[in-house]
Amino acid sequence: MITSRQNPLAQRARAARDGRARDLIFVEGLRLSEEAERSRLNVEDVLFTEKILSGERGRSVLDRLRRAGAATTQVSEGVLGSVADTKTPQGVVLLARRPPADQDSFERALKKDPLLVVLHGVNNPANAGAMVRVAEAAGAAGVVTTAGTTDPFSPKALRSAMGSAFRLPLWAGATFADVIAWCEGRGITTVATDLDATRAHTDLVWGGAKAVICGAEASGLSEIEIGIVDERVRIPMRAPVESLNVAAALAVVLYEAARQRGFADQI
Q1: Cα separation of 72 and 108, whole Å?
Q2: Helix (H) / strand (E) containing 218
Q3: DSSP state of 112
């Protein structure tokens, strides 16, 4: 059992947690560990405490991770506490290879007429993770995060995405101009929500290739950026409410798109 907080493995875990080990991601908690194993994430190391051994569920996921090739190491509660990103750790942390999030890998994963989500300047990890989760739930084909958007593989974003970031194709770090040009070159219609739009999101025909572009939580897209996208829609709301949380707005829009695209026939 590792009892020193200065142990190299504990230091490596903190580097992954803090984004200093860019080739690794930090996965914390029993449920997320199960999702990582189920998604066949390339897990290198598992740090666990006696707490995770107290239940059959915890013992089972540890066993599956071992059989998949991960190195498992028991640590003290103090060591895990120094590593964890949460206030009340559940007793297990994984260090896994960062899934591919480059343009080439993203393109190879796409099929004809995809429904995509673009996060531009979204800086709250919980929101970003929730949006990745909504994207997978609603049948989107992939998510693009522009430069300046929070890391979709940060610990908080991963917890909010609850495994969706392990499975959904991602392209991270593109500029807004690159994404717009990429969509134009592939015949993908770009769509943004706009309070001043004359058409409701339910009035847009969502068939074909579409990309829903979401701006920062506080400011949304700039006037220039709004002017570049192909389509602008508004989500009708009762006064005095003027806006929704960005993840909630994305859910409303995506599920209308999914409804029109025959999503109900696929589940």
Answers
A1: 33
A2: none
A3: S
